[in-house]
Amino acid sequence: MDTYIFRKQIHRLPGKVIRHVPTPEPHVMEGHGARAQIGEICKACGYKQVLLVTDQTLHQLGYEQKMVRSLEEAGIGCALFADINSEPTAALVEAVRKAAMKSQAECVIALGGGSVMDTCKMVAAGVRLSHLGTRALLIKFLVVPGKTLPMITVPSTAGTGAEVTVCAVVTSPRGVKGSTVLVGLNVTHVILDSELTVHAPQMVTAACGMDALSHMVEGAVSDVDVDERNMHLSMEGVRLILQHLPVVVREPENVDSRLAMCRAAMYGGNAINTQLAGYVHAFAHSIGAKYHLSHGQAITLMLMPVLEYQKEACLAKYAMLARYCHLVGETASDREAAESFLQAVRQLIATCGMDKLPSPVQTADYDELVRMVAADSINYSAPMTFRNEDIVNVLKMVQNG
């Protein structure tokens, strides 16, 4: 079979599968300092003992202290694991799982970014599947009978959306990084606390915002059949980022805009669950791995080239986004509206100071990158399927700026 035809058929599978994976519908609490209400939440849930997991940086900053005090005041026992300093590995998951089981935790509280969230997801599953070793958990689809141990997520960044996504990326004992979809993930509450994000460096804030934007744009234009509610969340997330990301880059302590960005990032996680990502992520993962770029930098480099290249396939949906965000008047054609949307994204990247990122792409690497992008893209449900020559054309766009 022609590799393009095969790839096109494969691209239809994730969209069919994702419809059958239940996604979390957590209670959401938001506010500046909202994490201090964790004790009330856990008491209302009837928990007597919890495990609070965070990373070394947040621990050094003391960001978990408000939560520990709140839990103590509510009469809830709290074991603390604050030794996360890397992306999740099988060994790390096993260490946290042992801590959860030793403390007899009834709930796992994840305070941090994507690494903390993904570690805790695997732990929440691993406690329920205590008869399995950690290595046995690292499969493409992990079905947890009933549900995982309850989780409460408190994201420290506004970007990944990992606080609600059903997947976790973990490196196996052999050093292979893989993604596991957790069927039965039980995220009961999300706490969006702007206080955790106000001190993030400007470029980190911008890069995280671009990541969140890419989740919702790619979700909105994917060929997954999605209901009106989830499409609305994706469009609303795009609107929030276009409006508020420039504000938080310019005014880091603007609490209202920080909260709006936290909300948008969560909507982005919902988009990953229900609509999947696309070629922006396939390219970003590939050039990020090849040239050791941060995920946010790689996403920003790839966002406009991919959006522009697939414009004809996405014209109506780009136009829909433009109209929802009030970028054009009612009389604008789809083509005019689509171009207005693309221009708004270009302007956002420039306003955030991300338009001067140097491209690391080298012509000599094209063959390797084509293979990497093609392999990664089978995980997504894209609006069009890229042939090898399409991938090369996009790489040239990135290389030439």
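(the above was protein one; protein two follows)
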Amino acid sequence: MGKEVSARGMCMDKYDEILLAWRNLNIRNVAELEAALNGYVVQFAYHSGKMENPNITYHDTREIFDHDGVTNFTGDVRTIFEIRNAKDASNLVLDAFARKTSLTPEFILELHHELTKNTYDPRRWQVGERPGAFKKHDYVTGRYEVGSAPEDVQTELADLLDEIHQDTIRTNENIFTAAAYLHARFENIHPFADGNGRVGRLVMNYFLLRNNHPPIVIHEEDRKLYYQSLEAFDVKEEIAPLKLFLKAELVKTWDRPRFLRHAHVSR
């Protein structure tokens, strides 16, 4: 028990150091954001994609992001589409950051279209499901079969976004709690026929970026704890397990000497 508390304390201290380093970067435009995210975008795309598709590799992700193609690929072409879509969605986020686009249902639909275009299977297509559109049929996920009814999705998503925008006291902790809640509730609503996890992770990170907070890579090797943390919200509406998990993932993402040196620069 003592070791667990100590480990959590170290994680919290490192979180504060990472947050200070990010704030000291004083990001004012998209060029400075791209510089700060150097290497991060590929890591996020790889881990977020592999969470849903085990055929995604880091090599292929890097090749598509750097060269817009992969040589000698022999797998399912859907994998290539998913990686290419992740690149397009990343560019959409950067453009939205530059334009100071608000997090709205319309923007989330844009993200969903970019992430899922050319990947919907014939079965979904035949029943009217489309990239960039809310689900038309009832899909549930997980042990506890969560997921809003199709007719309730738009209202529940709009209410969720209103909730996170209402908090006028933007302390660091409030921002992080709001981000965790946004992600948990988004996955609980399950607004799309496919791509909910990929969209939800990107939506959470766009919210963080808009609030001058570093984004998070949720590492695919940590998926078991990730799903358990989401399940805690589904069952008991407890956000604390997901917050602890996300802070640990944030530390795992940004605990690099080259980045952390910014925490010790006077501004």
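Reviewer note on protein two: The chain has one domain: 2-264.
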